[in-house]
Amino acid sequence: MGMYPDRIELVSPGSLPANLSPAEYLQGQVSVLRNPKLAGVLFRLRYIEQFGTGIQKILAVYEATSAKPQFQFSENLIRVTLLVIKATLQPTVKGLTADEKRLLEQMQSYRSYTRNQLDVATGFDN
Question: Which residues make Cβ contacts (< 8 Å) with residue 87, sequence separation at least 6?
């Protein structure tokens, strides 16, 4: 994952699940967790839910803008680039656990992190 002032780049190692085309992936309703720890934190922060509708929601947010998310598929990875369209949104920090606050602080630094680097920076690599 890389966070920049103008975009967020997410890279998922591996290819699409077997028998799933890029078009089917973009239609949504498919949920395959690659990093259960990160997904659990993002779920508790209410950034994600667990019903496989994330791609549809991403596309809906960008629908009325000139900026569009970019999806790249290969045999070895899936890359999603999300352009910043509203930089004034700030997540609420009320009721977060210490772990969630640590993750949020690291993610707000706009540094480019791999998942392993983020795990080390937050202490989640244990």
Answer: 5
Identify whether the C-beta of residue 119 lies closer than 8 Å to the C-beta of residue 41: no
Bigger pLDDT: 76 vs 46: 76
The amino acid sitting at 1 is: M
- CA distance to 6, 28, 98, 100, 122, per residue, from 78 (Å): 20, 15, 31, 26, 24
Name the residue type at position 89.
L
Q: Which pLDDT tens digit goes with each residue over 65-76? A: 888 999 999 989
State how far the Cα of 120 lies from the Cα of 25, in Å rounded to an integer: 30
Domain boundaries defined on the chain? 2-122
Q: Which residues contact 116 (CB under 8 A, 6 or more apart)?
A: 125
Residue 45, pLDDT above cutoff 80: yes
As a whole number of angstroms, the distance between CA 17 and CA 34 comes to: 11
Which pTM value belongs to this model? 0.54
